[in-house]
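Why this split exists: single-chain examples teach little about how molecules sit against one another. For that reason, every record in the complexes split bundles all components of an assembly together and asks for one structure covering all of them. Below is a record exactly as it appears in the raw files.
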Amino acid sequence: MSHLFKIFIMPHPRSLNDVFDEQNLQALRELGEVIIHEGPELTEQEFSEVVMDAHVIMGVFDMPAERLARCKNLRAFINSEGNFLPNIDYDYCFRHGIRVLSASHVFAEPVAEISLAMAIDLGRGITRSDRLMRQGIESYGFAANSEARVLFNADVGLVGFGDLARSLLPLLKPFNVRIKVYDPWIPKMIVEQAGCTSVPLDEVLQTSTFIFILAGVTADNEGFLGEKQFALMQQGTIFLLLSRAAVVDFPAMLAAAASGRIRVATDVFPVEPVPADDPVRQLENTLLSPHQAGALEGVLKQMGRSITADIALISRGLPPMICKAAQPETASRFRSMPVSKS
Amino acid sequence: MSHLFKIFIMPHPRSLNDVFDEQNLQALRELGEVIIHEGPELTEQEFSEVVMDAHVIMGVFDMPAERLARCKNLRAFINSEGNFLPNIDYDYCFRHGIRVLSASHVFAEPVAEISLAMAIDLGRGITRSDRLMRQGIESYGFAANSEARVLFNADVGLVGFGDLARSLLPLLKPFNVRIKVYDPWIPKMIVEQAGCTSVPLDEVLQTSTFIFILAGVTADNEGFLGEKQFALMQQGTIFLLLSRAAVVDFPAMLAAAASGRIRVATDVFPVEPVPADDPVRQLENTLLSPHQAGALEGVLKQMGRSITADIALISRGLPPMICKAAQPETASRFRSMPVSKS
Amino acid sequence: MSHLFKIFIMPHPRSLNDVFDEQNLQALRELGEVIIHEGPELTEQEFSEVVMDAHVIMGVFDMPAERLARCKNLRAFINSEGNFLPNIDYDYCFRHGIRVLSASHVFAEPVAEISLAMAIDLGRGITRSDRLMRQGIESYGFAANSEARVLFNADVGLVGFGDLARSLLPLLKPFNVRIKVYDPWIPKMIVEQAGCTSVPLDEVLQTSTFIFILAGVTADNEGFLGEKQFALMQQGTIFLLLSRAAVVDFPAMLAAAASGRIRVATDVFPVEPVPADDPVRQLENTLLSPHQAGALEGVLKQMGRSITADIALISRGLPPMICKAAQPETASRFRSMPVSKS
Amino acid sequence: MSHLFKIFIMPHPRSLNDVFDEQNLQALRELGEVIIHEGPELTEQEFSEVVMDAHVIMGVFDMPAERLARCKNLRAFINSEGNFLPNIDYDYCFRHGIRVLSASHVFAEPVAEISLAMAIDLGRGITRSDRLMRQGIESYGFAANSEARVLFNADVGLVGFGDLARSLLPLLKPFNVRIKVYDPWIPKMIVEQAGCTSVPLDEVLQTSTFIFILAGVTADNEGFLGEKQFALMQQGTIFLLLSRAAVVDFPAMLAAAASGRIRVATDVFPVEPVPADDPVRQLENTLLSPHQAGALEGVLKQMGRSITADIALISRGLPPMICKAAQPETASRFRSMPVSKS
């Protein structure tokens, strides 16, 4: 069968080598014919000649129903950008058994890793102490730690219980923390099986010393963490924003940090790059991270391996198991998602 | 029996309330008579009147053989400072069944916690990126991460396999790291049972991306990590000094960081406070921490609870199980230990 | 919305109370109108009156395309029997966004539990020693253990890497075993992320001291473990059949046990109940289990809770997350499955 | 130094090859001179000629103070039988810095392994069902499981929190059990750090579905589990006796099993071998094990490796770390211990 199996790859906006190493490409070629289309453009003629009869397509170009209808062999369209963008007619795909896949799960581990370190950093004053030492105004020993919060045995809150949370959980586990979770899309049973407690948002905010914001943006949750929510938090709460700037009311968050009520780490900003004169750059009680939590070369290679493994399954008539498949119920909600977190 | 059991506590140089909360003191009082001696001095007369017939003594004052010989009831001397100092005649104690105890193990968890965060910080550039953002010269996303090292699946080296290493191991485990250990005092069997590999020092240095220095100072290992050892490390090695400044050749370490060959985090310095004009304060590729890794209020309270639990065992004629007991074979080697890490 | 949401439940061949306790039923009723149809029969008229407009149906009755086409509201059909039976037109469902769900995952934990105990039983001779003591011919201590195999540090093979294997893995983990996996449907990447090694079937059979057969029957694997495969196993191999009798050549398995080459535990038999005079009943080197590995009351209640949680998601327009959804690629292969393992 | 270091080994009642393989012996010989004395007798002359100047002695022969006083080099006496027997003057050793060591910890893992399997066996009816199938009177599926107890999420009680309990804990952990512990020698803090709850004996007995008896016999606890204690247990409690027959009132235990109130597994009996006509051999609700839980060849080899590793440390002037050292406070209590569990 494999001599008939056709894989079309248009890596833009990434480059082919970012995602696939030579071993990966070789593995793909053993599955069938691999057509690679570099560059940002794809003409109609190219579409007709090399895309239309592919069994698997990877790319982020437009795939309206009329194009999909011409792809008679198509079994899976893999979004290489990492989000479910509105580039494809999801309903057509669901009705016709075409999988729409994303390998965005690969970003979860590096984001979890840096989240954990940022939490301890704010709790224990790592970056702050380094800054004070460079300024020559540090304290030592117990005097340096008068405001310290340890993660061991702490109350931890997770807002969002998707891939990021699942990757963070095993890292938190040896710290013997109690974890409360708010995620309106996830049933209590799943939260409890993971050893956490499912609670309303307010309870997460009121009772947690460390709060990790891990929720993606949906039609429903834009800016849902605002002045009122920050007011619920305890003095000294450590608040970590790892997913999307749009889920918080950013000025309210910064005001809470400026006042000294909470400490904030953020990997995302409403505008990136942050304007040169943005006052956030000089804010106390904050740890600033230039959208670097997941954007690692090794992660893209892991994306390539994930995609290759799923294409291998698809080529054998089996369902993909590693990438995330778009679901009829949620595709439309996610479609409005802003630009990729990567 | 308990009405006869006598506990003498001289908390100096700490204060009583640093170590014991009210609940702890109450628990001690239920075991017997508790005599608390505040202040730094202890006269001969006071010794004769209130120390001499104690069953358990906690303090750091001088206990030569002649004094010990007068303590007919003494079962345990608990060093509240955290190290086995040369204040007591260890040989006399060993020959007469007097336990010399230290609760220094309580520092291990907070040091492990901050060590992990510092490792990820240097690997992922957390403090560095925050500094660049405050200077307005940050890069974003993949550009920010061109030198990043992730801890997941990394090669990790531990130099020293005592309390600190045992507390760090469970925190490292979910990162799926391969761990090589150098500790000449610990048998291979123990290292392997902990899921690590026991190797010579040079192999740790040559093959690890993250190297944690967790060894205490002994008569044998002062400055044992010098220019030659730093030369063995790979480009980009992340080197974390958490135990004692004296185990490394400090200038050699800083030179290796300055050259860009390695990145260094250190919680300890040859002279503390660090002199105002010490060039270490402006060094690149370093993360500076003012001896704050273990010095937490909560830790002293944990020390108090540990000591209380062991005194309870001793009062019942059972061996202590939580504090560390000085051993005949090693007491003399540790006696030269410099000032407390706390 | 919930006043319109309609849930039709026909529990046969189970009874309603087997699956749902009162708390569960109450939770279901809070989601919408719950229609319960007891008994084994469902007339066309009943179908028209109470099934046709349901949003969720639970049952195992026939649902050909013509019936499905009349169910305009239908979002999910939940098979309460535990397998994907050929009672429903899967293709119709896939094309029309109707989820076909099964809660068979609930059987995995109890089967894993008993599997582990059976493995240790055969390795250490638990049932055998009990039998010898009742016969008055036991040996003691080392003499009792001359043929013993410990699970600690053993080589373990898993044939099949689905729900059963995933539930068994955490139980095996503290025994520090090396695990080799054969499952032609599962990519190497998934096996490796679980800390196991993906190998060909022959390697599993040749190198494992404990072999767990956890694969369901498909069109492809009937009787795939036969005389040739048993001949590959080492002397003293412990062979555990937990999934389906049909995946092995049963007489070949019993012959290998009778010869003393391997030890066998089986929870399944080609004919159940086993005929009274079946020689398997007197076979040495075997541990016989009357299809009891998963059939626990508490498990059915867990099934009820899983179903309820997923119906709650569906009622809110979210995808189910707990039950297993039939997949276009594999539904036809599983459709031929024999009678339920429960 | 090693050419002067002398190791005397008298393996009786074991044989040399039971404990040491060739690799081990070679490792010992690299530490110093190894004198092996086979056979059960040791004359005074032999003692003078080959034992008296040894640095380390392994054996179980008599070592009163007068003999010890002649052993000027002696640093450690290693009991190869596995218990602290009254063969040696412990007080003399404590006063003179001679370690008395035992490698009995090696039995803990295999005992834990079989304990876990026996608990599941009684809970799920493994041995019982096998017996019924051989008798031709088995039930199937749910009918076979009407009395089943699963270990997942169960209430577990541990009586005794020494080596056995520590080896059992990690095996229980993936079953998500709640563990209550009774051990009067172990402080609450240690129990809690292990994730368990320290409670009075009666609470363990009243609230646990699975009760593991893991306590050694001391002067204080002989027969402490009697009729009154068995009466506290719930209907259907699963009671596992793994340590010593003498800690329970054996007839009371068997009566509780005979009545159907509890199910009992026992690896130990008041008289071994059990008399041919002992009614225990036909008792229902029991799982009988002929003192085989720890007596494995591989365990003795592990003992040999442990001893060798500790002798290596001792030869370098370091404290032993793997074997258990007799403690002044408890040696006299254990001295009355009955014959070895092995």
